[in-house]
Amino acid sequence: xxxxxxxxxxxxxxxxxxxxxxxxxxxxxxxxxxxxxxxxxxxxxxxxxxxxxxxxxxxxxxxxxxxxxxxxxxxxxxxxxxxxxxxxxxxxxxxxxxxxxxxxxxxxxxxxxxxxxxxxxxxxxxxxxxxxxxxxxxxxxxxxxxxxxxxxxxxxxxxxxxxxxxxxxxxxxxxxxxxxxxxxxxxxxxxxxxxxxxxxxxxxxxxxxxxxxxxxxxxxxxxxxxxxxxxxxxxxxxxxxxxxxxxxxxxxxxxxxxxxxxxxxxxxxxxxxxxxxxxxxxxxxxxxxxxxxxxxxxxxxxxxxxxxxxxxxxxxxxxxxxxxxxxxxxxxxxx
Length: 335
Prior knowledge:
single chain, three-stranded antiparallel beta sheet, disordered C terminus
């Protein structure tokens, strides 16, 4: 019989926006003997947010259908029969948190990892943080943030794993998504946020702060030399997006985007996500811009790069303080 008396699992979650360095951080933490890192999946959120109570095997099968519908979970290689056998060994009804804990243990077992270690699950579960913490109050969240302009530059260069199309080429949608996720973690005592750029420049102090936050015991802080263990656990279809995993961290990666993204697009992103960028100390570029009165385009004075007028309208309507931008544009037109 499966014992559910252990209480909430010793688990934390790694939150991230795509292309923010979460896989790099996960691989660095997986090196430590006291931490298990489970690759990207939303199994826990899908179980806890399932709309029906689990009152029968039939409904439990629907829950499993839900979690196995996610390609990332499928690539963890957990046999569905293993989850079902674990469920059948439980006497009586099972609550959603207990089923989630049961599934976490089966995932660890299928990967050959010890359930007694601290488990870090890579999952962008921003919307379900409150639900998870309600059931497991001791849960902690590790959040990695990267300059949103760099994130957008990477999103528009890479293709999604399963639809094989550009991940996100819409500057407005990308800026909105990035800033919303930053705000969702702001002010939470159960969340530690690290900047990707700080990890690249000061890896050891950043990792030490994570180990302290997760309360990893000293005997669990022994690190192996390479990150290859986590790299081998990543699903086959995801490896093309994570070719740097297992290699040494290179500090010069943090600023490479500045030479690739057009100044006009960079400025549009900056204005749309200004509050979030400033909150995390990212450098802001001068606002040398105006609207061409004949073409209706925003013009960046530095190099005369142009941005379609539809972005100008969005910038003016979506900013929290649009009057500032209007005033700058008005003054420029009056010159």
